[in-house]
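Researcher: Next entry: Multidrug resistance protein MdtE (Pelotomaculum propionicicum).
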Amino acid sequence: MKTQKRTIVQSGRIILVFLLALSTSLWLMGCSPEAQEVKEDAPLVRTLTIKSVEGNLKSVYPGEVCGRNETKLAFQVNGKIINRYVDLGSIVTQGDLLMQLDARDFQQNIDAIGAQLSSAQSQLNLATDNLKRYRQLYEQKAISKAEYDSFQNTYNSAEALVRQITAQYEQAVNQLNYTNLYSDCNGVVKSIDGEVGQMVGPGVVTSRPQVVTIVRDGEREVEINVPENRLDELRKAEKIQVKFWALPDVVIDGRVREISPVADQVSRTYKVRVSLVNPPEGIELGMTSSVIISGAARQQATAYIPLSAIYQTGDTPAVWVVNDGVVHLRSIKVGAFGDNQVQVLEGLKDGEIIVTAGVQKLREGQRVRTSAGEAR
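Model: Predicted structure:
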């Protein structure tokens, strides 16, 4: 009887040891790297549900109020500025004197040419008198035809010399007048590039020819700079509005009047002039403005996603699309960038879920846990 009890106890001990070994083995399997990898293979990711938007695409460009017509005035001769009669913002009328050059050399040139003209005129008078006397003698057959022709040639030469020096004199007078720079229109002085004592003129390489810029009275415009990839959007714009920082309650309709055919060499943008439709009073030159371009309605819906959702593979942008808890890489076509967002033109549909954070750590076909967000 005792032997039987001993056998039962030993069997129970063996079973207990077996169960303990089995549980230990299962516990070790649960802590193995393979099990950890399975758990870590489904990370929690932040997602976004795509919601496409219809309607107009708006772009905003900073601009500056300027005149439609601007005149850049310059001296027609070289010289040193001795007087300046206008300042920035001065209101001028046609014929107002703006600047003066030192005219002493030009006056001396006129005096020298004037003396030559007097001498030539005296020679012409003498040739005229001689021609009259010898014409009478020729008619009386007192001299030969050759002698008469000689005096005729002398007269013709003297007359041509007078005409030549007269033209030189008039040119010298014009150059003297060119030492005074006059306004050729009514307007406002926008910029001054010449000061008293400065050498100016087309012959001076180190200075710009224009010295005064005048904005003509009349229509006001706003000048903006547009990148080349937005020019087509600008041409198809349904509506253009202009706002002013100094006049927050004023909103004016605008229309594109002119697009520069050549890009700026530094910024590689195109200058665009926007005319103001029925502008109110108070809009001054140089005011800072914002031009809002409302694009035409698109034929297909577009969506906006965070820049952090873009997974760049070479030159092709892509996103991770979550389908039944598994991510798949999909190429997309992007449009405008701005405010940490990018416009998606092709590649996504309404209701699809994409990963918006940690995209560089994912791989094709990986299982993830999602935390859906709202589309913007």
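Model: Note for the record: The chain is about 30% helix and 35% strand.
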